[in-house]
Amino acid sequence: MLETTVVVIGGGATGMGTLRDLCMRGVPAILLEQGGLAHGTSSRFHGLLHSGGRYAVNDNESARECIEENMIVRRIGRQCVEETEGFFALTPGDDPAYVEPWAEACRKAGIDAQELDVAEALRLEPNLSPDIRRVFRVPDSCVDGFRLALHNAMSARRHGGRVMTYHEVTAIHQRNGKVCGVTARNSISGESLEIACQCVVNAAGSWSGRIAGLAGLDVAVSPDRGTLIVFNHRFTSRVINRLHPGADGDIFVPHGSITILGTTSTPTERPDDTTPTCTEVLRLLDLGEPLFPAVRQYRILRAFAGTRPLYTPGNAAGRKASRNFHVVDHAEQGLEGMVSIFGGKLTTYRLMAERVSDNVCARLGVHAPCRTADEALIPDPDQAMLRRAARYFPVQGLQLMADRLGDDLPDVLQQVELAGRAGESDGNPLLCECEMVSLAEIERVARDPSTHSLTDIRLRTRLGMGTCQGTFCSLRTIGALVEHGVPLELSPTDNVRRFLQERWRGLRPALWGTQAREMELGRAVYAGTLNLDGAANEQDN
Amino acid sequence: MSVRINPDQCIACTTCVVHCPVAEATPNFLGPRMIGPAYERFRLLGLAEDPSLHYCANCKNCDISCPHDVPVSSINMLARAEQCKKQRPGLRDWVLAHGELQARWLRLIPAGLKNFGMLNPVTRAVLDALGIDKRAPLPRFASQTFRQQARGFRQSGQNRKVVFFPGCYVDVYDPRTGLDMLWTLNRAGYEVIVPDEFVCCGLPMVANGFWQDARANAERNLATLARWREQGIPIITGCPSCALMFKTELPEFFPDLAEKHGLTPLEDAQEFLLDCVERGELRLESENRASLPELRVIYHAPCHLRAQGNGLPGLELMRRLPGVASRNADAGCCGISGSYGFKKEKYAIAQDIGATLFRTVRESGAHVAVSECGTCRVQILHGSELPCLHPVSIVRQRLEALNPA
Fold first, then answer.
1. Which of A255, A340, B45, B101 shows the smallest number of beta carbons within 10 Å?
2. Is residue B234 part of a domain?
3. Is B8–A232 a contact, with Cβ atoms under 8 angstroms apart?
């Protein structure tokens, strides 16, 4: 039996942000997440830190929140954000009459949208369609949602917070109309855990309807499925939006070494309905063509899908449903101590966390102000440390690695320096060449108690997320981890098998061209040579 | 707008890494896949250049071995061009990239003096300090360039014409090979035109990062070539690197120039001579064959020849010569890669790469080694101590010996 003041349910950006906010105000809190870190929608979206331009016409208030939060997240989450800026481009298929109201709405929301000469836009983004009619530059940015959740968790830990991944909440207990605790099941050990608390924050995103259901509440949350395509390289260095009322497949986002195109929008029953289909991929390519005419020549690495947690009290659906967020205090329905946060989008995660924490603190009588907009998630590593690291890590990828590792950088550096002093030659090879991830970084992450599988390692390091999609790095990594005696939950074979299946799941809906060759190579290595598909007795048949 | 090559064709199979002679010789080079298509993704992301890029010798064994037609070495050369735009390469690289220009500046100085000036121990020590290894086999200047000598070469009355692109190596250091080419083509009934307008093909400039100079040379050469092409006269070269430059590199690097002047691929001179043999224009046999002792040659196929996928016409030519026993060394890269093996930090790598070839040549029992590429010949002599000649020189020697004029 654990005891705390607040249990936060949901390990995405909002939940982690709430945990951080509460802990910074001195409120003891524990976060429970059913899967790995950011296992839900926070790692299954565009990676776009909205300027608000997309919402300016329809929902000016959301747009204003976006631009304000955009500026804050850039400041506090420097390691998670790439300040790329964005374009809104009017294609021949878009209504020119939309432009002026849109520009006016941007002005009203405080979004700095500057018209740019088309020729200049094409000089900056040579792959963009030469047919575009008008271009505006806006302060869009790119954000790594997974890393944002991780760095919020690191910050929360520094302030005394506790994060428990792979813990699924199975019951919310109440006494006399008041929340008094939760039961969670450790999905790896199968053990059950009781936590006594005074408040529960439901920040489970697409799963928040189900969590509310555990407390006997009926809430209108409809998961809405969106599919996205990942391309092998970065053919745009800015976020490119179509200048029209928000629709499917009209945003390209450069993300590290790759580019993402999305999304679609279809209602779904299940929050974990995240297997993309070939039809969706083909449709996205059609939709993407007016912005990037060569879109079919770029190799698709994979497709993925996530579910938006749309809050639909008035039965609005799909693109018509509000992207706004709602803090609901369930005391109104007769359950004190339970607060839910519904809807919203990643760009405003911090504001959502602030509002929900305000509510919880008011109930608890805590008067400390919110400081999450002032303090950086991760302090910048000092230059001396980066110089030390340059002796062991590929120097050009150093900043990328430092950004990924956050608080773990000093630890990784110390380990690799110890190995260096022990005279291990080439003690720190790159295990993942496509994304430049070295042994030391992988080993550190693998030894983290919250890491159970290669997939957990992948999420934190980008292992297997580049060109080869795991073909070379998974074998190398499992070999290195076994050699170094790093324990993982599954057997090495099962670990690789599960990891590859997860990678291949995203490859299947776009299995043509070069990527089909890539996967055949992977199949030849693992199924053919290593017999990973387990045709153990085929000799006998 | 600079040219960029889409890195998507690479599936990371690492076949090129296995075939990269540099990656095998030194751990300092990350290897073709990593520096080429894989790192290209990081270049697009805005990361600083990988420090090992300069180890790529541009030998093109990656391109040859790639099952998916990824122009790996071109990605590397374009990256080097970008890098050199930001930071000008040093004096040493300028010297190695502009051999032809220096030769022109020094034209009035007698070769003996030039060679004494360049090759004496004091200068070699200075060059060594500059970064040109003092052990490297720097070629000697010829007393007169090939083109100067060609003007005095009496071509017998011919009615068929061919344009010959000599390449800097033949022009500046090795006119004898050029004259052998002239002689042999005359023998086949061709008048050989050697235009004065031709300048260096630009490959050494590309490899050393002097992109604008390479572009200027390309523009000048393509304009000249277009004039001869329009007259319907075949244009040939005996140098595989020059041929490769015109055939695949220029259109890849300077597509606008290729569009402006049209493409004029240079025909391989050895292939041209084989065609002459086929057509009966050049006779290699003779009645008094028994009077000549057998000549054993070992042939080295330059990497830049293999990169063109033309087969080995030079070796084929040797095989057609009566009384010549030829064998393909088939022992990989010689290591020199133009000016690469002259550089101080790369000399040992180049020797290491060539070691297999040197041993094969030494142990072959051949009288002479044969290769089309000038710097390959220098390197083979340096590494194996067996003289190395261009195939056309062997052709001339044998024909002269068989059929004294």
1. B101
2. yes
3. yes
Q: Which range of residues forms the domain containing residue B398?
A: 288-402
Bridge partner residues of B268 (DSSP)? B237
Helix/strand/coil for A305: strand
Q: Is residue B313 part of a domain?
A: yes
Domains and CATH numbers, chain A: 2-40+146-220+323-364 (3.50.50.60), 65-142+223-309 (3.30.9.10), 383-540 (no CATH)
Look up residue A444 and give its amino acid: R
Nearest CA in chain B to A258: B41
Flag whether residue A237 sits within 8 Å of chain B, measured between CB atoms.
Answer: yes
All residues at 6 or more sequence positions from A59 whose CB lies less than 8 Å from its CB, including other chains: A322, A323, A324
Contacts of B47 in chain A (CB under 8 A): 396-397, 400
Residues B243 and B307 in one domain: no
Residues of chain B neighbouring A426 (CB-CB closer than 8 A): 27
A77: its two tokens: 């989450």
Residue among B1, B11, B39, B75 with most chain A CBs within 10 A, to mutate: B11
Residues shown for chain A: 541
User: How high is the pLDDT of residue B1?
Assistant: 38
The answer as to whether B134 is a domain residue is no
Domain co-membership, B45 together with B158: no
Q: How many domains does chain B have?
A: 3
Q: Which residue has the tokens 């580049």?
A: A466
For residue A336, the 8-state DSSP code is: B
* Mean pLDDT (chain B, rounded): 93
Q: Chain A to chain B, count of Cβ pairs less than 8 Å apart?
A: 72
Q: What is the largest CA-CA distance in chain B?
A: 69
In a domain, B231, yes or no: yes
More confident residue, B190 or A420: B190
For A299, the closest chain B residue by CA position comes to B8
* pLDDT tens per residue across span A365-386: 999 999 999 999 999 888 888 8
Judgement on whether residues B339 and B311 belong to the same structural domain of the protein: yes
Mean pLDDT score, A395-402: 87
Q: Which pLDDT does position A539 carry in this prediction? A: 52
Radius of gyration of chain A (CA): 23
